[in-house]
Design goal:
Length: 424
């Protein structure tokens, strides 16, 4: 028989949360905590306790399977709110509005998130209150997976997680360790204090770049040879797009000048200008930079273009052997560096294969940058066409910070944090 947990709806006096509530970014935030059917559900109790202690208001939404692992009484006592699981109360027919809940939330956290719930969220299978709430939620969503290592590694789960990422949801990666099955591997839900720290960081950083205008160049440029051929490079644009998302996440208004890439922008505060050639990128950048607080030059701009562009397709039979004469393109970074005001910050990149530091320092000075992000093609997992990067930041005061290999989004956050300290 379906458990009548609405019987617990009496407002439990929350004596323990009268403890000193520290001033922090979670204070007053409305958090929906979605709990699903995993043994890690017991950890949700610790998450609630930590969130409430930090001054957040927590509304638990639990799946039917979740209730097999932790009782609604425990959850409602800790959260001081009735736990929601069904669309309406069996007792008195009260309708639980997932739409209202979705609008109430400042963030939704699904922890633990089973493979099944992740699959439903990724594919819009709204057969329970948790998934309908997720679909109605306009606030940022955090997902902390918990499952066995093989389930986590399965392409189906990974594809679903990628899908959630593409919706802008944040995945709190599971940790490695002993699992409920006694197997050891990746799949264990991240520890409650780490999960709460992710949310705290998120809210703390959200206003760091508020009212700041940031211009970012990203991707390759294509330099036309004829209507069907061009000179280009391997840049995917992923680093620049990750930077745009990270800046927007921290409250900035971003103008993203993108070369030809097959990437999508997620955050609504990113205005995208698509360009093809270095000249078009230069024109767009020079037009918007005077109004900006900062510029991040992440594009792999072609240094040269064909001196002449054929208006019709060049034919092999008529041309035979051919020589392309190339002329230099404008250096966008140097042009912006030359017009940069004292209150503007300019950030460049240097992708090098040898004498990395010397080359990066040379570009930092030549282009009048505030700091330069160096990546070396000698580092595995760094550079073009991968999802990770390994960087060293060198600033104009001579300070150098080397970072470990991270996802491009993680690297973007490090760069944006550095930028935020200067812009402040
Ligand atoms: N850059 C730019 N416009 C160009 C060339 C480079 O804005 N025409 C920017 C890049 O976006 C990057 C920095 O300058 O932030 C360094 O780019 P890189 O290609 O490494 O430097 P170059 O000056 O082109 O030097 P080289 O290719 O000889 O290493």
């Amino acid at each position: 028989m379906e458990q009548e947990f609405h019987a617990y709806e009496t407002k439990v006096p929350c004596l323990w949360n009268i403890e000193l509530i520290m001033e922090n970014s979670l204070k007053g935030k409305h958090i929906i905590l979605g709990i699903t059917g995993s043994i890690a559900a017991y950890k949700a109790a610790y998450i609630i306790r930590a969130l409430v202690k930090k001054g957040a208001e927590v509304q638990v939404v639990i799946t039917p399977a979740g209730k097999e692992f932790i009782t609604p009484l425990t959850l409602s006592t800790l959260s001081c709110h009735p736990v929601i699981s069904e669309f309406f109360s069996n007792r008195d027919g009260t309708w639980n509005s997932h739409v209202d809940l979705g609008l109430w939330a400042d963030a939704m956290l699904v922890a633990p998130a089973t493979a099944s719930t992740i699959g439903k969220m990724a594919n819009g299978i709204a057969d329970n209150m948790l998934v309908t709430t997720y679909l109605s939620c306009k606030a940022p969503v955090f997902v902390a997976p918990a499952m066995d290592l093989d389930m986590f590694a399965h392409p189906s789960t990974q594809q679903n997680l990628d899908r959630l990422r593409s919706f802008g949801n944040r995945i709190i990666e599971p940790a490695e360790g002993e699992l409920a099955s006694h197997l050891v591997g990746k799949g264990r839900m991240e520890e409650p204090d780490r999960i709460v720290a992710v949310l705290e960081d998120f809210f703390a950083s959200r206003t760091r770049l508020e009212k700041k205008k940031i211009v970012i160049t990203a991707g390759p440029t294509y330099e036309k040879i004829d209507p069907v051929r061009f000179i280009g490079n391997y840049s995917s644009g992923k680093m620049g797009f990750a930077l745009a998302e990270a800046c927007a996440e921290q409250g900035a208004e971003v103008t993203l000048i993108a070369g030809p890439v097959s990437l999508k922008v997620v955050h609504p505060n990113i205005r995208r200008i698509d360009v093809e050639s270095a000249e078009e990128m230069y024109q767009a950048a020079i037009a918007v930079f005077p109004e900006a607080d900062a510029g991040i030059l992440c594009a792999a701009v072609a240094d040269y273009r064909p001196e002449e562009q054929a208006s019709e397709k060049i034919k092999r039979e008529t041309k035979g052997e051919m020589t392309l004469r190339l002329v230099p393109n404008k250096d966008i970074a140097a042009a912006l560096g030359a017009i940069k005001r004292d209150n503007q910050v300019l950030v460049g990149f240097a992708l090098e294969t040898n004498d990395e530091t010397a080359h990066a320092e040379g570009k930092l000075k030549r282009k009048n940058l505030d700091f330069i992000v160096l990546n070396s093609l000698r580092d595995a997992g760094a550079g073009f066409r991968c999802d990770t990067n390994k960087i060293t930041i060198i600033d104009k005061e001579g300070g150098t910070t080397a970072y470990p290999l991270k996802s491009k989004l993680g690297v973007a956050v490090d760069i944006v944090n550095k930028l935020a300290t200067i812009l402040k």
